[in-house]
Write a structure and sequence with these properties.
The N and C termini lie far apart (187 Å). The chain is of the alpha/beta class. The strands form four sheets. Strands 6, 7, 8, 9, 10, 11 and 12 form a seven-stranded mixed beta sheet that branches. A five-stranded antiparallel beta sheet has the order 2-1-5-4-3. It is 48% helix and 18% strand. The chain is built from 19 helices and 22 strands. It binds adenosine-5'-diphosphate. The site of adenosine-5'-diphosphate has 21 residues, from helix 8 and helix 10.
Length: 738
């Protein structure tokens, strides 16, 4: 081998060795760096673990703190609980009432001294079962007032089993009354309170006794007032009656003023006495209702008529709106309904200076065919402030105080009205706004006294087709229009006579004209004259609140009708106009009925024991064409009835020997026995006490008039009963149409 070869081989082995070295170096480096990475991660882990250890140590430290805080809190809570328990227990011990707790197994686990003391020394101890507690109570402590011990314990145990445990009162032998109040807790334990209510029971008994005494005294007072006012009425009737007669005699102006003052003061006094009488009767629980059939619409109109003069003085319009689809006749106490209406409408007129008072009646039929009637009285008067509204139904409450009073009144009207409405099973209310007006309303339920709807369904139809209404008050026109429309008439409304004349000239043919009486500028009669002057012959009805004032100006009128217009009267006139064959029967509504022939004198018998009253009666009928006899008691009345054969009898009720009722019964008995016609008997009575009216009518008397007597009422009754064979007994009022 050559050197060169040797060298080359050597160089190759050196190169190979160098390459190997290089490789090992690289491997060593890699192993080194892995080692150092490993070492780094190891030291990281160590650092991390050391930190974790530190954290755990901190946490352990803080837990230790917390633990001691909790221990501290617990200790404090324990202390507080102990204090609270002690306070509670002291409180329970301090109260005079007994307090005890029984556990779910009905053993006494807690009881205060008051509770344990109930059972006497050694009677009951903690740990005793409820049954033992009951037994001790029943056998030695409680006064069972004769009840069997077993029964009593049984009842007491049964009581605890109920869902709601009612309190029970146990009378102890020492006279105390203990009320046991028991309640079940959620865990089944029973909390029991024993309250000593002896004093409260005594107070209650005393109060009850005092209340009874006060009520008895109040009833006695009311009965006394009722009797007194009743007694006062009788002589007052004499005063008022005589004053009325005195006014009709020839007097100087001054004397006339005196007499009129006596009369009006007497009447005012009677109103007050009547209020007191009514109120005390209600208070003394003597007020009774006497229901009978009556016409509500007529009653309402009559009240309006009575108040018409007062309203007229002030220029107030009185309006009635009675629902056309309601019956008008109902069964109720007419006198009391009238009183309610008089009070409410009277107040409305009293407290209204101008504008109107509107009485509205609406209602609905119930399934039992009775009617729920709503009656409201609306005025445009002074109104009532909200803070007074609740008070006015109270006794003697008036909005005005005494010093500023300008309205008369007793303050009893509304309380009486409310009581009457309540007595009828109804309710009353008021809406009012000061300065705007008030609306009083009441609701009652009345049974109708006629086949329902009869009043609205005449047996023959109204044949008139077109009507003309002339009235300056819109609400009047509306009401009248509604009434006419139900009878099938087409209505043209005019606000003024001028409008009416235009309508007549321009429009279609009317078959009836209804005109108001009082209107500004041209009044009703003037309008009628102008209509006739224009050659129009249509029937004209004058609707007037004072027919007397139109008496000598009715030539152009077919009829004069008193306002407010009664529906049945309107219907009657419309029917008469529809069937002219009957035209002869048309009588102006306000006119007196034509009276009998030219025969004998009508005979009137008056039974009256009181001399003053006789004098009053004699004077009242002084101008009448009658033969009058007096009887001083019931017996004389029956005798005179036989011998004198009167055409009618006025009968006082309370008379000596035989009273008016007995006399009437005797007369009726003889009439029946002999088949004689019944003589009309009219009772004259100062009796306003309840029961009287019924017993009076039961005795066979036909009518009841209450004193003070009114000449006009007596005259009407005499005229009503004047027989056809006698001369007219009562002069036909002069100046009236007819
Ligand atoms: P009075 O006899 O005073 O009228 P009431 O009991 O009838 O007694 O009425 C009580 C009070 O209620 C009246 O004094 C009046 O202040 C008030 N009042 C009643 N009705 C009306 C009304 N329509 N408008 C305004 N105030 C009224």
């Amino acid at each position: 081998m050559s050197i060169v070869e040797k060298l080359a081989r050597e160089r190759r082995s050196r190169l190979a060795a160098e390459r190997l070295l290089e490789q090992k170096k690289r491997e060593l480096f890699a192993a080194n760096s892995q080692l150092s990475r490993h070492a780094r991660s190891l030291s990281d882990q160590i650092v991390e673990q050391r930190q974790g250890l530190e954290l755990a140590r901190c946490e352990a430290e803080s837990l230790k703190d917390q633990n001691s805080q909790v221990l501290h809190d617990l200790e404090r809570a324990n202390c507080e609980a102990e204090v609270a328990q002690r306070q509670l227990w002291e409180a329970i011990e301090t109260i005079e009432d007994g307090f005890a707790v029984f556990d779910a197994a009905a053993r006494l686990v807690t009881a205060n001294r008051a509770y344990l003391d109930l059972f006497g020394a050694g009677g009951v101890a903690l740990g005793d079962p409820y049954l033992k507690v009951l037994a001790v109570l029943a056998e030695g402590v409680a006064d069972l007032e004769g009840e069997d011990v077993q029964d009593w314990c049984h009842e007491m145990i049964e009581r605890l089993g109920r869902d709601v445990i009612e309190p029970t009162v146990v009378l102890l032998r020492d006279g105390r009354h203990i009320r046991f109040l028991d309640r079940r807790g959620e865990a089944g334990d029973l909390v029991s309170m024993a309250l000593d209510i002896t004093e409260a029971m005594q107070r209650e008994a005393e109060l009850e006794e005092a209340r009874e005494r006060a009520e008895a005294a109040n009833r006695a007072k009311s009965a006394f007032l009722a009797n007194m006012s009743h007694e006062i009425r009788t002589p007052m009737n004499g005063v008022v009656g005589m004053a009325e007669l005195l006014c009709e005699t020839a007097l100087t102006e001054e004397q006339k003023l005196f007499a009129e003052t006596i009369k009006s003061s007497g009447e005012a006094l009677l109103v007050i006495i009547n209020d007191v009488l009514d109120y005390s009767k209600i208070e003394a629980e003597k007020m009774r209702l006497y229901p009978e059939p009556f016409d509500l619409e007529r009653c309402l109109h009559e009240v309006m008529l009575l108040l018409q003069p007062k309203a007229r003085e002030k220029g107030l319009k009185l309006l009635v709106d009675f629902d056309l689809f309601l019956p008008t006749r109902y069964i109720a106490d007419p006198g009391r309904v009238r009183q309610i209406l008089t009070n409410l409408i009277g107040n409305a007129v009293k407290f209204t200076a101008d504008g109107h008072v509107l009485a509205r009646v609406v209602g609905i039929e119930r399934t039992d065919h009775s009617y729920d009637l709503h009656v409201s009285i609306e005025d445009t008067g002074i109104g009532i402030a909200p803070d007074h509204v609740d008070l006015i139904f109270g006794e003697f409450n008036q909005v005005e105080d005494q010093s500023t009073r300008k309205f008369e009144g007793t303050g009893l009207g509304l309380p009486i009205t409310r009581q009457l409405v309540r007595l009828m099973g109804g309710t009353i209310w008021v809406d009012s706004e000061p300065g705007q007006g008030s609306c009083f309303g009441f609701k009652v339920n009345f049974a109708p006294a006629e086949p329902t709807g009869a009043a609205m369904h005449p047996d023959r139809p109204v044949l008139l087709k077109r009507a003309l209404i002339v009235d300056d008050v819109q609400i009047n026109r509306v009401i009248l229009e509604r009434q006419l429309e139900t009878y099938g008439l087409e209505v043209t409304n005019c606000r003024t006579p001028a409008e009416a004349l235009e309508a007549l000239a321009a429009g279609p043919a009317f078959e009836v004209i209804l005109t108001d009486h009082d209107m500004p500028e041209i009044d009703g009669p003037d309008l009628a004259a102008r209509i006739r002057a224009a050659g129009v012959t249509v029937p004209i009805l004058l609707l007037s609140s004072r027919p007397d004032a139109a008496a000598d100006r009715t030539a152009d009128m077919t009829a004069v009708m008193q306002k407010p217009i009664l529906r049945s009267q309107l219907l009657k006139v419309l029917l008469e106009l529809s069937y002219p064959a009957k035209a002869a029967e048309i009588v102006p509504v306000a006119a007196a009925e034509p009276l009998g022939g030219d025969g004998r004198t009508m005979r009137v018998l008056a039974a009256e024991d009181n001399r003053t009253n006789r004098l009053v009666f004699r004077k009242m009928v002084a101008g009448f064409d009658i033969e009058l006899r007096f009887a001083g008691n019931g017996r004389e009345t029956v005798e005179l009835w036989r011998s004198f054969r009167p055409d009618m009898i006025f009968m006082d009720i309370s008379m000596p020997e035989m009273d008016g009722r007995e006399a009437a019964r005797a007369i009726r008995a003889i009439e029946t026995e002999r088949g004689l016609p019944a003589v009309p008997i009219v009772a004259l009575t100062a009796h306003a006490m309840d029961g009287d009216r019924v017993s009076i009518l039961d005795s066979g008397i036909d009518h009841c008039l209450t004193k003070p007597l009114k000449k006009a009422v007596i005259a009407a009754k005499i005229a009503e009963h004047c027989p056809a064979t006698a001369r007219p007994a009562v002069p036909i009022p002069s100046g009236r149409p007819g």
